[in-house]
Amino acid sequence: MTTASYAGVYGNGTADRARRSIGVRREYGQDCTDFVSKALYHGGGMRTRQGDRTRDYAWWDQGYLFWKPFKSYTWSAAQNLYNHLTGYRYTQSIMSVHSAKPGDLVFFKWYTDRGINHAAVVVSYGRKMELRQHGPTDQTTLYDALARQRRFGTPVERFWIVRPLGRS
Questions:
Q1: Is the pTM of this model over 0.85?
Q2: In 127-161, which positions are buried (b, 16+ CB within 10 angstroms) versus exposed (e)?
Q3: Is the separation of the CB atoms in 103 and 150 below 8 Å?
Q4: How far is the C-alpha of 105 from the C-alpha of 26, rounded, in Å?
């Protein structure tokens, strides 16, 4: 992967920031990826990457423009953040929920949708992998998130666990 840049992300910092950010103001109605990006940046120390806001290589938050959030698509849309992390940063795909660690990210694809549409941060692992997110329930477990989507009639078709590398 020659286009990747070293992310240098600190996983425990990402998880700590996600834990502390429950209840903060949402900038979007669907704010999950903005929540995850802020945890990566402010807690994990992941550096921004400048560029065209519609391109997957860019990842930034410029605050507001004309009273609206002005961020790269990768900062605020789950599929785009997944594309950015797996295409332009050093990441590891975690194949087992038992291997997840605090600071890992979980991306969800609902059965009825074409792409990834939700993201969350792992804050504890083991039997009840705990997640923090801006979603229907901000504090949940992987099992509860999967069960809730089945009850809502929008089951999760697939989920991915991604670990940004470069942690201490």
A1: yes
A2: eebbbbbbbeebebebeebeebbeeeeeebeebbb
A3: no
A4: 19
